[in-house]
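Protocol step 4 of 5: obtain the predicted structure for the target chain.
Materials: sequence only (see below). No template structures provided, no constraints applied. The aim of this step is simply to have a reference model before the mutagenesis design in step 5. Sequence pasted as it appears in the construct record:
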Amino acid sequence: MKATKSPIRAVAKWLRRQPPKMKAFLAVVSGMAALLFLRMVVEDHDNLFVAAEAVHALGTCVLIYKLSNEKTCAGLSLKSQELTAIFLAVRLYCSFVMEYDIHTILDTATLGTTLWVIYMIRFKLRSSYMKDKDNFGIHYVVIPCAVLAFLIHPTTSHKLFNRICWAFCVYLEAISVLPQLRLMQNIEIIEPFTAHYVFALGVARFLSCAHWVIQVFDTRGRLLVALGYGLWPCLVLLSEIVQTFILADFCYYYVKSLVGGQLVVRLPSGAV
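Step 4 output (structure tokens):
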């Protein structure tokens, strides 16, 4: 008797046969459908931002478990963690001098755990750190973000230095995961805990992006006007979209591995 094929596996097999352009089109349609679904079921869209913070915290907990119990940092990018610490520290400074709120507390906790992760990788688990694979130069990220922040920043009444810092942390957050993706591209096989952590980052950034996009549509663009004039409002929204799409490719292979019943995520050459 022939075994019944799982509908999920059948869909996954069909997706694998599609050309890259069709996959990209389906990804965009799926993203738009997800945005529409969230807009319909979530009454207070600010909860999407809270949900993004919660998912990010969950991913960090997975990372802490990996470092504490597995005693290895294999597959983790120290440079991505350092970039995360930089933009969180700058954002905390901006929060204290510009607008202190609940997110200041959340960022403080996230910065503390990020610094702990950096300490573990640099000192306690140094022998398992893949330094030769973590070869993305962070100056390729920090310097362009600093220059762009100097040129394009908020037009609020705050001091110029504070506005530049605000823009810098927005731009840096959008691409801070690039060293992690480069490392995963180099090793091609991602063990479960690292995969869970990066997938959590992808989900968190999608929810954060959804929060901004839905707010823009609900306010009929007034939110962008409230952020100021010039290119800054557009770049804020673009940064949210960019950091979502940067992780979209990895999330696809993550889900594909789960559907296939694989414990590790295998990335083809050139992916992410």
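Step 4 remarks: The first strand starts at residue 189 and ends at 190. The chain has eleven helices and two strands.
Proceed to step 5.
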